[in-house]
Amino acid sequence: MSLNRRSFLTGGLAGTAGAALGAGLLTGGARADAHAITDTRTLPPSYPFHGKHQAGVLMPPPAHKQNFACFAAFDTTTASRAELAGLMRALTQRARLLAAGGTPADLGVGHPPSDSDVLGPAVPADGLTVTAAVGASLFDDRYGLAAQRPAGLTPMGVFPNDAPDPAWLHGDLMLQICAHHPDTVHHALRDIAKHTRGGMQLRYRMDGFNSPPRPSGTPRNLLGFKDGTANPTGATAAGLVWVTDTREPAWARGGSYQVLRIIRMLVEFWDRVSINEQQNMFGRRRDSGAPLDGNSEFDTPNYAADPHGNVIPLDAHIRLANPRTPATANQRIIRRSYNYDLGADENGNLETGHLFVCYQQDVKHQFETIQTRLINEPLVDYVQPFGGGYFYTLPGVRDANDWYGRGLLT
Questions:
Q1: Do the Cβ atoms of 406 and 288 come closer than 8 Å?
Q2: In this structure, are residues 75 and 64 in contact, taking their beta carbons and an 8 Å threshold?
Q3: Cross-strand partners of 261
Q4: Average pLDDT over residues 92-106
């Protein structure tokens, strides 16, 4: 069976990289719009733009992340460090305005309109956050920033079972744009692209969506399992995410390392697997999300009582990802993952998957340590990572005079 799945990947994914990119650029948001939308009356209409940290990493209570997102990687085209600073000022200005919402200026009939009007004559804030992060390539010799590169920022590592596609990797700048509705995400990206056209060029883009909790608890991924049940919260989460290490450049403290992995899910093969095998691969029940030794989603699995994996297999995803030992407690990560749907590839196979997104203080100690434990887990026959990158999420914009990356560029 594995050979057939690998043949599927070779003929489907690798042969349609260009088609997939086009689908992501042109129609990802439209497809996302077809999915169910949470009743946003219970969600905050906006999140603060100014602060020590960017709002799109850890959401304030109620702890509902926005259900729609876009991950857009850009290559900067500015000719100098001064021009790069100007680009970041312009990006900050647009993000600040979009996050607040309001009525666009009327420039008169003799000028192009100041806004696309995709959201109507008044732009709602709609829970929008624009989270800016930089990639390792920004610290090459173009801008004289090499000495200011965050200590752990490198190109994304390649693990066994990955199939990296250069068209979907890395980037000088990553924008994570999230909101309560997909048209808000589209509007924000379109507005930002319009006002920064001379300074950065889109490298790749992927739109994501999350479903409402069904029937309750944590939303599900496209394999049908609840995703992110064990995410740390509160002070524990903050202690795992925000960089405070004095070995980092001073400008970087208060930021966070972001990992994006674009993972195709072979859902048609997955749907032919028995429910017992599926649950053993995850270590959880599909219907409730409960660990196999528990009764409800948020029960803590008791690995000490099951040392030989008779209930939760030793190679189950949850057991490898989080062994729940004192030695691994500070290796946990904060996930902000989304689903994606690009339709079908040229062979007629569903082209869907997962935008795995996580934040942490130290990529090697946290994400890469976890990912190393997951090498050759049973799920690898049904998932294929092919894109994304490592990025450094910039510290927050403190006030109206501040801007993304000011500490780095001045």
A1: no
A2: no
A3: 356, 388
A4: 96
* 61 Cβ contact partners less than 8 Å away, ≥ 6 residues apart: none
pLDDT at 64 (0 to 100): 58
DSSP collapsed to 3 states, the chain: CHHHHHHHHHHHCHHHHHHHHHHHHHCHHHHHHCCCCCCHHHCCCCCCCECCCCCCCCCCCCCCCCCEEEEEEEEECCCCHHHHHHHHHHHHHHHHHHHHCECCCCCCCCCCCCCCCCCCCCECCCCCEEEEEEEHHHHCCCCCCHHHCCCCCCCCCCCCCCCCCHHHECCCEEEEEEECCHHHHHHHHHHHHHHCCCCEEEEEEEEEECCCCCCCCCCECCCCCECCCCCCCHHHHHHHHCCCCCCCCHHHCCCEEEEEEEEEECHHHHCCCCHHHHHHHHCECCCCCCECCCCCCCCCCCHHHCCCCCCCCCCCHHHHHCCCCHHHHHHCCEECCEEEEEEECCCCCEEEEEEEEEEECCCHHHHHHHHHHCCCCHHHHCEEEEEEEEEEECCCECCCCCCCCHHHHC
For 379, half-sphere exposure in the C-beta direction (CA atoms, 13 angstrom radius) is: 28
Q: What is the pLDDT of residues 227-249, one digit of tens each?
A: 999 999 899 999 999 999 999 99
pLDDT attached to residue 114? 95
* 27 vs 295, more confident: 295
Per residue in 173-200, pLDDT (tens digit) is 999 999 999 999 999 999 999 999 999 9
31 band by pLDDT with thresholds 50, 70 and 90: very low
Query: Which pLDDT does position 29 carry in this prediction?
Result: 36
Res 15 pLDDT > 50: no
Closest listed residue to residue 127, CA positions, set 193, 166, 86, 182: 182
